[in-house]
From TrEMBL, chains A, B, C:
The modification N6-carboxylysine is found at K298. It is found in: Cytoplasm. The record marks E90 as: Key residue in conferring substrate specificity for N-acetyl-L-ornithine versus N-succinyl-L-ornithine. This is N-acetylornithine carbamoyltransferase. It comes from Aliikangiella coralliicola. The keyword Transferase applies. Coiled coil: none annotated. Its EC number is 2.1.3.9. GO terms for molecular function: amino acid binding; N-acetylornithine carbamoyltransferase activity; ornithine carbamoyltransferase activity. Pathway: Amino-acid biosynthesis; L-arginine biosynthesis.
Amino acid sequence: MKHYITTADWDQAALQEMLDLANEFKQGATSECLKNKSVALLFFNPSLRTRTSFELGTWQMGGHAIVLEPGKSAWPLEFEIGSQMDDVAEEHVIEAAKVLSRYCDLICIRAFPKFVDWQEDKQDKMINAFAKYATVPVINMETITHPCQELAHMQTIQEKLGNPKKKKYLLTWTYHPKPLNTAVANSSLLIASKFGMDVTLLCPNENYLLDDHYMTLAQKNADQYGGSFQVTHNIEEAYAGAEIVYAKSWGALPYFGNWEPEKTIRDQYKHFIVDENKMAMTNNALFSHCLPLRRNIKATDAVMDADYCVAIDEAENRLHVQKAIMSQLINQ
Amino acid sequence: MKHYITTADWDQAALQEMLDLANEFKQGATSECLKNKSVALLFFNPSLRTRTSFELGTWQMGGHAIVLEPGKSAWPLEFEIGSQMDDVAEEHVIEAAKVLSRYCDLICIRAFPKFVDWQEDKQDKMINAFAKYATVPVINMETITHPCQELAHMQTIQEKLGNPKKKKYLLTWTYHPKPLNTAVANSSLLIASKFGMDVTLLCPNENYLLDDHYMTLAQKNADQYGGSFQVTHNIEEAYAGAEIVYAKSWGALPYFGNWEPEKTIRDQYKHFIVDENKMAMTNNALFSHCLPLRRNIKATDAVMDADYCVAIDEAENRLHVQKAIMSQLINQ
Amino acid sequence: MKHYITTADWDQAALQEMLDLANEFKQGATSECLKNKSVALLFFNPSLRTRTSFELGTWQMGGHAIVLEPGKSAWPLEFEIGSQMDDVAEEHVIEAAKVLSRYCDLICIRAFPKFVDWQEDKQDKMINAFAKYATVPVINMETITHPCQELAHMQTIQEKLGNPKKKKYLLTWTYHPKPLNTAVANSSLLIASKFGMDVTLLCPNENYLLDDHYMTLAQKNADQYGGSFQVTHNIEEAYAGAEIVYAKSWGALPYFGNWEPEKTIRDQYKHFIVDENKMAMTNNALFSHCLPLRRNIKATDAVMDADYCVAIDEAENRLHVQKAIMSQLINQ
């Protein structure tokens, strides 16, 4: 039984199959693949797009989605195996996964890092425990990667740019008042490199490099799929010739859990904001972002409101790709 | 494309058309107007009736409702245009409205005032920003007016009193331990005057007058539709001859955001409670309230439990009128 | 009109009828008994199984469930009759029950005790007020008993042990860091005794006896249905010969609301944990628990992961029995 936890588990052809199916849904194809079936949506963190698109996508394919918020409307959950549960968690993932597998046909999880210890967070224990104990497929709604966003992003790129191979792709770090999750940034590298793009990661300095695991995967993908991967701290160099600019903020991994000094560093790089001047250096690039986005912090109003901003199209595509993912997992 | 943000945008005939449709729904008419369609319900504030009736009404007409709570289950939203978003809001209404318009066919908003600055709150910026950027119709689930409640109220009045024209309508302020929203009071004046009733506003003193904007609209409606509008601070005068009494509490606008001194004033008027003695002064009046209502604070148990209390009927009518509103907006 | 508030209101034959219907649902029988009907689910407390299984069960029978959380997404509710509502509650159960009865065809309530005054809590005022003022049937989703859990438990027992009569049933108290509700323990006694089992209650000492009301009902059921009921504080004696072990933690009633000294007592009985050694004393007993369960506090990993643990089957059965309960109440 296959889960959808990271695109690293799927090759380009398998992902393209899902993208093709997503395009069919977008063109009006219907499916009854979830008729009499149900989907559990577990949110440990807030959501607008993910929740709406999963709930609607399930309904459009004949099923029913249940939204649960562990720690709020549902019991707080423990994921450590063998734990003596004398802290706040009332229930273990083992039981939650097994019970939900009896009720539902798919289990979707949003579980952000705890932002205290990256070595701990990078193991992605919550969703991996669900995948281990569930007897139905598990879908990642964002943990330390965001593979649903990846497919929506790639669907948008293919719609706007055609074949992405060797197209110049820029992932730029931007400032944000809080140290955010690296999930979408990791995912950006994974998906762009898997489709053979020439990928550049722009970040202020070495502190803002992404985890080696994802950097290495990006290089491996580049080698396998005919693209390239490079890192730069130079804004002009990064934007020059770019055909798509993707923006995301994240906290510096070397300071993970030690966020006060990190903030001092981060505060020096507010000028990484995506603005019209930077976009003018590109090769008429598209701009996108996973949303939510703080306007005039990560990108200016002018960029967000420009015709080349495709963030809303990408958000719409969440619905179509997630229907494709659910359809593929339920029919395996 | 027409929104349903305030009844001031709709004339009596258009509202009567919605009331007639609501009556058909109440008599058992069915509609499939939301088949394969979905409705986003955004609640910035709590709800029992509104949420239940919108969610059910959508389902009864073949659609699916998504409930989102910005700031809780969904991201906190900014509505100021041009804002540099370095505060708590993670997302701007511009994106939220555009994205939800891609997923859903109607967007409904409950966004109460912030109770700090009335000049700010009275601009109703949140729902107006949604209306500006959404590409689907927007419905007001209570902001600084409550136009869904208005129609349910008028449906109830017509059911119980027949043609409302020249019927004596009393809106009475009542005490409440907290300074509440003027929305339902504003709405009470708007709808009663729009249907030509003889409207009296009873409040303790000038501090509790409603905003000029709504007082003026009430007078204009009275002039246009053949009713009248007067204000009094005299309880006996107000109740004498009334055929329907509608109760609501609100905080004094001149003290808006400065609620400590306001409370000292408000505490002197607990005797504005609707009780049997006051109801005995009327012309066998009906009593109603939008609910929720604090018993023995705003109205006594005896009044709430009396046969002349039609608040439960009015609450039921929320379902019927909202189906009518959604039906009209989706079919425009 | 019959509610489902406690199994004490239903005799064995009536409960068996629901169990038989639940088995039919489990075998794949379908029902459209909730077509065009809706169910209000009011949660004053968290839930995973109850919410998921009620929402899905409603949907599977053609209906729509509305989830409301009074005090969070919905208004806080008052249940005292005649109260002058100047505290936090914005709405009285009288109105909530009447209004929801206009919208919905069943009302389900989860309202745990407040843990301050047992004499107050044991009156179960919230759900009783709903039952008094609602004009549709009311179902208990756990208050001071948990009658839905009872049926799921008995369905599981019958599946695994056949006719439960004279089978040896052990309800064992276990340690938990917090003083929990006695609801499931009360329910355990009620249902096991109603089906003629030989019921033993094991608890550390007299402080942990259950309320006399439920102990007396258990003895009456034993007399009527041919089983027996005994209490012991001796672990070896309790486990010897048991054919099913049910575990639950609860706070000591004599210390109700005075939880600090109670914790000192409770902390001495961590060895009541269900482990392999204790299970080895039984007659190859099944183990079950209502879930959520803190692993290695109430039962060890080895017990939870053993083949004789039927807690997941019991959780699944929640779905089937609740469909049976809703079906019976809606068709009465």
